[in-house]
Predict the structure.
Amino acid sequence: MTATATTPVTAADVPPLVLRDVTVAFAGLTALDAVSFTVEPGTVHALIGPNGAGKSTAFNVVSGIYRCGAGSVRFGDHDLTSLRPHRIARLGVARAFQNIALSKGQTVVENLMLGRHGLTRAGFVRSGLRLPSATREGVRHGARVREIAAFVGLGDKLDRPAGLLSYGDQKRVEVARALACEPRLLLLDEPVAGMNADEKARMAGLIAQVRKELGISILLVEHDMGLVMGISDRVTVLDFGRCIAEGTPAEVQTDPEVVKAYLGTGEEP
């Protein structure tokens, strides 16, 4: 990865993400029960818990896929609570999904250009007519996409169909496409799920590099506790839709409620 391929932001550019008393229910089942936490600017904040704890629901609320029945979600001065996903994305919130959602028949560079769609100003007509302004904009976007691809370690795979890449490389294309949106907050949904040890190490290094070189905030959902405890600044633990603990990785690891609900006691039954 090349740090020179990035455009760092300043602390003033990255606002906090604040969830306050967020409650979501589906057909009488409470998926999130008055959940509150804050992702501080420029930090890696992990959201962990057993399956069904409400982690994905929280992600879907932040990205606008779900709406909460009570509570609020704010990103700096912006209230995200009732905004549609495309409006939230334009405020600088990008997401990489757990299940790979690439256009596998298209090349890596074409997939990354999809992430630039919300930043395009030329419009359909000018682009279709290949007017000079649209051509210049296309060149700028193409150059930026190549910088991002080099940053995530895919600079030599730009012209390959995404579906022909290894699983680990496809996951990195997912992250690169999210970065192509120029986010201030990056949502990573189980970024190392299904990876082998080498792929996990490379992804962990990439996440750390994104935080260090770009300065953006990262909200992370992950089951791999080695990764979570190794790269996170703060950890929020959910269980049955409730927040049962929050703190540094060291604090969470020794919290009795967390040990009981998720991490395990290590004792034989």
Observations:
- Confidence is low (pLDDT under 50) at residues 1-6, 122-129, 265-269.
- The chain has two domains: 1-92+183-269, 105-182.
